[in-house]
Q: What sequence folds into this?
């Protein structure tokens, strides 16, 4: 005689499991922030040396760019996880999401700079 396990839930609706892994999204955002900030600081140090920026300005600019890169990395990671698909699809979604976030952040910064002039 075959016995079947008793149902563990009395819910009458299907329970879906989220495809997005928050820890991975957070880790991607942190990694993106570190990479973006250090890459920007590397470029900004040349500007400090040429006396185009103070060290403080270079640090602030680098942190801002790093934060933008981190947000783009986190959003792109979440987008790839939510869409799924083949490797090609994942790369297209990753590039589109990261570029879109970068574009939006850059546009927002330009509008803010124009408003302060």
A:
């Amino acid at each position: 005689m075959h016995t079947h396990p008793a149902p563990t839930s009395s819910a009458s609706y299907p329970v879906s499991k989220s495809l997005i892994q928050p820890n991975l999204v957070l880790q991607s955002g942190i990694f993106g922030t570190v990479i973006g900030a250090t890459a920007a600081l590397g470029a900004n140090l040349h500007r400090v040396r040429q006396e185009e920026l103070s060290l403080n300005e270079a640090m602030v600019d680098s942190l801002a760019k790093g934060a933008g890169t981190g947000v783009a990395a986190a959003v792109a990671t979440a987008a790839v996880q939510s869409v799924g698909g083949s490797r090609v699809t994942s790369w297209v979604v990753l590039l589109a999401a990261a570029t879109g976030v970068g574009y939006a952040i850059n546009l927002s910064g330009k509008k803010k700079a124009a408003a302060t002039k």
